[in-house]
Amino acid sequence: MNLNTLKPAEGSVQKRKRVGRGTGSGMGGTSTRGHKGAQSRSGYSAKKNFEGGQMPLQRRVPKFGFKNINRVEYKPINLDTLQQLIEKAGVTSIDIDVLMQHGLAGKNDKIKILSRGEISSVVEVKAHGFSQKAIEAIEKAGGKAITL
Q1: How confident is the model at residue 110 (pLDDT cuts 50, 70, 90)?
Q2: According to the UniProt entry, which residue ranges have a biased composition of type Gly residues (predicted)?
Q3: Which of 23, 44, 54, 105, CA to CA, is 20 to 30 A from 61?
Q4: Whose CA is closest to 113, among 93, 138, 91?
Q5: SS3 124
Q6: How large a percentage of the chain has pLDDT more than 70?
């Protein structure tokens, strides 16, 4: 093997299309862009959802419903989940920091305690919202439900 016999691998090098180099090249004149129209001109770029003049999908699909921009999304946590947390971690007070440490809530989540399951431990629960039955169950067990 000599340096003068080295060649690139088969198919790794593609021949560049040299446009606008005279009519004899077969790519002169309009430089393969055709005559007139937006795509023949420099600076042309189609809009993201442009479908060639056809009615775009986002306009063809029927729209319905209403999205309230003031809606408050809560992360629901049930009483049985709190009871498991109390048994596992042995906490007497549950707030957002405790829930974050145990992976039950994120730092920007608003938390609402719901009443599925039972709670038997005396515990102080701090959250952004409670269902009425959850408050009753926590207070019946001897704890406190504090709304933030």
Answers
A1: very high
A2: 21-31
A3: 44
A4: 138
A5: strand
A6: 100
- Cα-based angle 82, 87, 92 (whole degrees, multiple of 5): 70
Residue 56: helix, strand or coil by DSSP?
coil
Pair 96, 117 in one domain: yes
What is each CA distance from 83 to 67, 116, 145, in whole angstroms?
35, 11, 14
Domain count for the chain: 2
Note whether 57 and 79 are same-domain residues: no
Half-sphere exposure of 41 (CA within 13 A, CB side): 7
d(Cα 66, Cα 36) in Å, to the nearest integer? 44
Distances in Å between the Cα of 73 and the Cα atoms of 54, 97, 108 are 38, 19, 11
Same domain? For 113 and 142 the reply is yes
Please identify which residue in the block is written with the tokens 């038997």: 120
